[in-house]
DNA sequence: TTGTGTTTTATTGCCTCC
DNA sequence: GGAGGCAATAAAACACAA
C-alpha cells in the first residue's frame, strides 16, 4: 500500500504528491464530464489520452470515472425510488377509495339481501295462508255443470279487493255452500285475502276457471 | 472561529473475465 | 494470474450556520 502510494502518488513532473488529496480543477472536471457523457466506461487508450491532456495520473482518471459511475448510480436509484414512491402513493389512494367503495357496495348488498328475504318470507306466508289455489290445482278439472262460475279477467295484473268480495267470489262461496262443504274455510280465506288487499289476476283467473273448479 | 454535514478523491478487498 | 470494475469506506476539501 505504502509502496503503491510512493509509486503512484507523484505528478507528471515526478515530484511526490505531498498533500494526500487535492481537488481537480474546474477545467479538468469539465473535460472529464464531457468524456463521461460520451461513454461512462473508460478504455485504456482514452484514459491515457485524458490523463495526458489534463495533466493527471491515469489512475486518477480511472478513479474519477469509477466515482462518477457510483454517483450516477446513486442518483439513478434516488430517481427510481422517487418514481416508485409516487406510484405507490397514487396506488395507495386508489386502494383506499376502492376499499371504501367495496364497503359501501357490500353494505348495500346486505340490505338488499335482507329486503329480498323479507319479501320472500311474506310471499311464503301468503302461500301457506292461502291453500285455495293449491286446492283448486290439486282438484284438477271438473266441468261446472251448474254454470254459476264463469268470469273473464285480465291476466297477471294485481287485483285488489276494496272492502267487499266480488260477486263472482260470492257465487263461488255459494257454489261450495250449495255443495254443503268448506264454506267457513273459504270465507276465512277470502277474508284474509281481503285483509291483505291483494290477489293477482292470474290467481283469480285460475280460481274462477270452469276447468279448474275444485273437486269436492 | 468552529462544529457539523456534504462532496470529492482515494484506498481496500473482493469478484469477474480473458 | 493480471486487469479492471464495484461496493464500502476513509479522509481531505468544502460549505455554512451559529
From TrEMBL:
SUPFAM superfamilies: Homeodomain-like. GO terms for cellular component: nucleus. Residues 67-122 form a coiled coil. The keyword Cytoplasm does not apply. It comes from the Eukaryota. PANTHER family: HOMEOBOX-LEUCINE ZIPPER PROTEIN. Transcription factor. This is Homeobox-leucine zipper protein. Residues 17-76 bind DNA. Transmembrane segments: none annotated. Residues 15-75 form the Homeobox domain. The gene is 11429040. The keyword Phosphoprotein does not apply. Keywords: Coiled coil, DNA-binding, Homeobox, Nucleus, Transcription, Transcription regulation. PROSITE patterns: HOMEOBOX_1 (PS00027), HOMEOBOX_2 (PS50071).
